[in-house]
Amino acid sequence: MTSPLPNAGSLTDVRGLRVGHFTETRRPTGCTVILAPDGAVAGVDVRGAAPGTRETELLAPTNAIEKIHALMLGGGSAFGLDAAGGVMRWLEAHGIGVQVGPAQGHERTGKPIRVPIVPAAILFDLWIGDASIRPDAASGYAACEAASTDPVAEGNVGAGTGASVGKLFGIHRAMRGGLGSASVTVGGITVAALVAVNAIGDVIDPSTGLPIAGARSEDGQRLQGTMRSMLRGELAASLQPGSATTLGVVATDAVLTKAQATKMAQMAHDGFARSINPVHTMTDGDTIFALATGASGQTASLTLIGALGAEMMAAAIVRAVRAATRLTGPGLPELPCANDLAGT
After folding, report:
1. Are 180 and 318 in contact, with CB atoms under 8 Å apart?
2. pTM for the full predicted model
3. Which helix (H) or strand (E) holds 13?
């Protein structure tokens, strides 16, 4: 699906990055891969209480690896981390990875062992359709095959295929989430964001302060306003940890160190806070990765880059739900999209 929204830029505007989706046809789930074939300095900041991640500890500024080769965001809860193995296989087949020495049996030829570095994070979408169907290694490989520098498809694709928002009062009162992206170029440096929005909370338009997708009233006809309800003392549904999660990537073509990339990821969580309420909850595994390709050859104020990253993240979250479409079908919950309840 291609976003029906006017183009606001996307993660692929950052030189050195390609993005590909795998969208499962048997049930709403999938994965999204961000490829950095020439490597990218990376950082991460995890603020949700129920994350599902892989290789995030490696991104700490004190640890050895300087660059990664891909990121994988997926549905399927912890099962979906398997898709990162397919990304590794694709990268290995294309000779991409950290060289660690000659392969056994190839000492005379000097053929190197290359280990691709692929951090990953997943969101929970198992309650939509057949939970035994989730992204696997073949899904990750297919997303790599589909990767390009074209504008990123938005809405219910890739990691955003089975996403939903506004679940604090139960899935029967929730709405459709999705995947969105945005970018900006300032002073010759591009900063961009990509996000799969699957939050427990409502999605807020920062320009108005009003919810545009989230928990619905008991009759399903209007937006409830989760925080307004909580302030009135209305009790939320009892939800299991890990039943949601919003996953984001901020990226730039500026030159950054690992410590600076980590700070960029931290600042990008401001974009989550502007556009999702409540956020970083006990049932979310909210995670943001940061990438710096250095392709511009320029350095810039980290305050500027971090602030722009937060702004692009907030914009991408809004775009994700505005590009989403209604979920309906046999055995699936009926989840309207933002356009269905616009103006309520």
Report:
1. yes
2. 0.95
3. none
Question: What would the two tokens of residue 108 be?
Answer: 């005379």
Q: Are 97 and 91 in contact (CB under 8 A)?
A: yes
Please state, as a whole number, how many other Cβ atoms lie within 10 Å of the Cβ of residue 232.
Answer: 8
Sign of CA dihedral 201, 282, 258, 34: negative
Low-confidence ranges of the chain (pLDDT < 50): 1-2
| Nearest residue to 323 (alpha-carbon basis) of 216, 194, 221 | 194
How many separate domains does the chain show? 1
What single-letter DSSP state applies at residue 142? H
User: Is residue 193 situated within a structural domain?
Assistant: yes
Tokens of 189: 């440096």
1 located within any domain:
no
Give, for 43, the enclosing helix (H) or strand (E): strand 30-46
105 lies in some domain: no
Task: Say how many CA atoms lie within 13 Å of 252 toward its Cβ.
Answer: 35
User: CA Rg, the chain, in Å?
Assistant: 19
Instruction: Give the model confidence (pLDDT) of 39-58 as tens digits.
Output: 999 999 999 999 999 999 99
Per-residue pLDDT of 254-276, as tens digits, reads: 999 999 999 999 999 999 999 99
In a domain, 245, yes or no: yes
Element (H, E) at 266: helix 258-275
pLDDT at 112: 80
Give me the domain span that covers residue 306. Answer: 11-100+110-341
| 216 touches 326 (CB < 8 A) | no
